Amino acid sequence: MTDVPARAPTDWGSSEMTGRIARRYAAERRFRWIGLGAILLSAGFLALLLFTMVSNGARGFTRTEVRLDVDFAKAALFLDPATVRASGDKAALAGSDLQNVVSKAAEARYGPKGARLFADTAWLEVLDAIESDPSILTRTATLWLPASTGVDIAAKRASDAEAERTYEGLRAGNAVRTRFNSGFLTSADATDPAAVGVWGAFKGSLLTMLVTIAIAFPIGVLSAIYLEEYAPRNRWTDLIEVSINNLAAVPSIIFGLLGLAVFLNVMHMPRSAPIVGGLTLALMTMPVIVIAGRNAIKSVPPSIRDAALGVGASRIQVVWHHVLPLALPGILTGTIIGMARALGETAPLLMIGMRAFIATPPGGIADPATVLPVQIFLWSDEVSRGFVEKTSAAIIVLLVFLMAMNGVAIYLRNKFERRW
């Protein structure tokens, strides 16, 4: 019988072991550099996106105005300043042919093509000026009115040669200026790019998100609690779990078809309303909240439950006083993800009619409305070049809205977080 020699201890100084260690360290360094490169690449794409949006969208928050001197005394509007001041009848002002007054004043000041220097909605600015100061009806007033799309684009150095020459001529006469466009944040949709605003779509998004969170969050959390804490383990429970997991991966347009079939065709709810959009997006968001909620509840240590039961707590007291508070940060994380996805959705809302032209902000959840993603989609499809920068500006508003909503959710998550 031959003796088997004992295995020699590892020789850390041998060339074979030294080469193996060197290859291991080299692999770790490569992995670290690959990970760092992936992060830098992602950050680069994000920076490029933000730079593109800000550089293009910043111009959407400004508007170009052209000076116009209007002699209302010679315009023969037949309006008494005292009557206008006392009654404030805007309908009478609107019917006083202000459009023709603006056109004639523009032609008298800038020549036969002077009316083309001003936006189609410039006369509405004149109407507001008369309403705020009726005394201008008796004198010549100097007004700064929104410029046409061509002049506005030329003022931002993105137009053709003819528009550039027109703009340079106006600037030489100190008859043009560019200022912050507060109306973009306070107005609704319009056919003229100089008069459009995001307030109508922003309010529609806000109302839609309120309906979505009011329905999806409580139902999703309660479903997660039941499935994880109370539901028996059988084939029906397994079927429900598989269905929820599959619903989380269903394309969003399918939920739009479901909302169209159920909420509009069967329940006859108002078309293009935030309540219908919120219900549709709640169906889409709920599976995400349920899955995140179940994972968060499952991560609570069993010892927490055993300790609470050991001191005499009931089953529901264990869930509401111990398990749910500890799982709430994870639940809110899933809610943030689901709501962020819902805020940027367009396809399901197009299916329920929220792509209509809405010139008045909604007054409630049952009024016709649109949302920011759909508004961006509609503006991007417009022919006029004036809508290009408005589209980028609306994207900036959408991103700010998203970050604000996520910031509030993260604050609440950190506020209610409990550690053990």
The termini sit apart by 62 Å
At the fold tier of CATH, the topology name of the largest domain is MetI-like fold
Examine the secondary-structure arrangement and name the CATH architecture of the largest domain.
Orthogonal Bundle
Basic shape: extended
What does this structure look like?
The protein is 65% helix and 5% strand. The chain has 420 residues and is mainly alpha-helical. A three-stranded antiparallel beta sheet has the order 2-1-3. It is extended. The two termini are 62 Å apart.
Task: Label this structure with key terms.
3 strands; mainly alpha; 420 residues; three-stranded antiparallel beta sheet; MetI-like fold; single chain; 5% strand; 18 helices
Quick gist of this model?
The chain has 420 residues and is mainly α. The protein is 65% helix and 5% strand.
SSE layout and pairing:
Blueprint lengths: L14 H43 L4 E10 H4 L5 H7 L2 H5 L3 H13 L11 H11 L7 E7 L2 H7 L5 H12 L3 E5 L2 H4 L12 H32 L4 H13 L4 H15 L7 H25 L3 H9 L4 H29 L3 H5 L20 H9 L5 H31 L4
Antiparallel strand pairs: 1-2, 1-3
